[in-house]
Amino acid sequence: MNDRFFASDNSAPVHPEVMEALRAANEGHAISYGDDRWTREATKSLRRLLGRKASVHFVYNGTGANVLGMQAGIAGYHAIVCTDVSHINTDECGAPERATGAKLLPVPTQDGRMQPDQILGHLHAIGVAHHSQPRVVSLTQSTELGTVYETDLVKEIAKVCHKNDLLLHLDGARISNAAVALGKDLDEITSRLGVDILSFGGTKNGLMFGEAVVFFRPELETAFSYIRKQGMQLASKMRYIAAQFQALYGTDLWRGLAAHANEMASTLAAELVQLPDVEIVYPVQANAVFARLPRSVIAEAQGEVFFYVWDEDASVVRLMCSYDTTASDVERLVAAIRRSLKVQ
Length: 344
Fold this sequence. Notes:
Aspartate Aminotransferase, domain 1; 13 helices
């Protein structure tokens, strides 16, 4: 099996410019816990992209960003409305509920995108002492199924949230891919639409580690310095997280990397649809391709170019493209599937 594969965009190496930024940040001493020039520079860069009033706080990982970001706005008797396929519901080992005490209220989706009326169905619980009180709506952009929320839909969901005193959280693990897919700047798909809390991802777009929690409502950040410390996400050597963000978001590097990953996914999908008995099951809008393959060919193809099975029962696999995916990588995967299908 080749050492380049389509299992996850987390599998890609650190981008060379990010690695160089880490090397440069490793010279000499710096004040700990974020009181350093790298953190100040990266914070300024993110505010330039997200809005000057954005409050930026660096953390180690995406689960920490999601959990602690939402924790800033909820109490243990609250509830979080999310999709059934959301990362907080399926892939964080119960961390949101354990750490916050709040209950997750997952809603079913056809393509990973929540609809406004699905929020309304939970509002009957407000004011009823027997029920967890809805407080946060969490969306994922781009979604776990590779689809992207159009700006009008996010704006409509934000209106429903704010009309009913709910907070809107955006899990932006792949926010860069979404912005490129929509042809928008980052503030146009976050702060300008009414997002209150953003988990801002970098690891899936070329960083070694590190994410950011961003608040667009000042009152939410008041206690976050304590929440982050208690939540074990306050980095003593924060310059190493911040330097990476500055390398990626201090320039347009982030946009080029995300655009390339998205383009490779589109190329891959276009090749796969030409194969017999292969079906693309969700719209390919960012850097993910979900394909239904005959069950008998999956293991053989995985042996050549590794990828994950997303839905065993439906025989659907997930193929993730990264900033460093090449046309040759795509060709090799398609060829492996073609051979497994016994197609000449």
